Amino acid sequence: MTPAFCVVGSINMDLVTQVDRFPRPGETRTGTKFGTYPGGKGANQAVALARLGGNTRMAGKIGDDVFGADYMATFRDEGIDTSIVETVGGTSTGVAVIEVDSGGENHIIIVPGANGRVDSSYIDANVEQIVEAGYILFQLETPFETVAYAMRQASSRGCRTILDPAPAPPHGLSRDMLSQVDYLTPNESEAEALTGIAVADLDSAAAAGNELRTRTAAGIVIKAGGHGAYIIDDDGARHVSGYSVDIADTTAAGDAFNAGLAFALGHGRSLDDAVGFANAVGAMSCTGFGAQSAMPTYSAAEGLINE
């Protein structure tokens, strides 16, 4: 079956240790809890799309280790097409090694592993399967030059592209990359990193969005967490309200938002309606723990909207 959505991006396993406090240099401490959780912005978006009912294909790489095998089982359980997920011999699956102290602060070490091996040759080998999808989602946890190359391939073939510029690149986004984007979805801090304009309300969001639109014709959607999101496009700037939920964990809420946005646009909703739906998906993802465990179904997101 031809996929409606393809996610090109990172596949990480999160290794999370809880401690009462962080160890000092040279100190060994006993942790209180440990768990492994599927993560990575790309895979998070793919899982969120599949939970909503989207026919989704994942494009990326894993290592030939237990984490890669576990992740393939996760993808299969979620109904995600993994036909072009490549296993790299002699390389680890991407991992995030995370320490969380009793106050909720964290230390994170990212090891890209196989994510760092997603290159232009991989895109060339799989481009026809990637561009079968009408909407293609990108992030910046795989090599920057590969993302730019893949976006050019997708855009030239008429696919709609959605770029989550996270983590925000210290060197900014090139005009070449921005010219391939249909929807650019930074959060408030990423919008500030890209423009130098702090986003706190509609006026400042409009200023940041319009600065970005001097470099691209993309529709700008600035994610504002519980406050919803701001849209800046040819029709001007406006705010789309968020939803109030009991928050357990905000991890991957932005990934859930992007999945909701793509899903709604792919099903013919207007941008404003799609952002409203994305706000609900992002909010619902915060009601449980972990990057993927609380990604909502379509009926759950619609239920929040109808409340």
Describe this entry's structure for a reader:
The chain has 307 residues and is of the alpha/beta class. It has helices at 41-52, 66-78, 120-130, 144-156, 175-178, 188-195, 202-212, 253-266, 271-284, 298-306; strands at 5-8, 12-18, 33-39, 56-63, 81-88, 94-100, 106-111, 135-138, 160-163, 183-184, 219-223, 229-233, 236-240. A 9-stranded mixed β-sheet has the order 5-4-1-8-9-10-11-12-13, with helices on both faces. The two termini are 34 Å apart.
Task: Give the structure's gist in a few sentences.
The protein contains 10 helices and 13 strands.
Largest sheet: 9 strands, mixed
Overall helicity: 25-40%
Instruction: Count the E strands.
Output: 13
Count of DSSP H/I helices: 10
Task: Output the strand order for the largest sheet.
Answer: 5-4-1-8-9-10-11-12-13
Shape: globular
Main structural class: alpha/beta
Low-confidence stretches: none
Mean pLDDT: 94
Q: SSE order, as H and E?
A: EEEHEHEEEHEHEHEHHEEEHHH
Determine the strand fraction and express it as a percent band: 15-25%
Instruction: State the end-to-end distance.
Output: 34 Å
What value does the Rg take, in angstroms? 19 Å
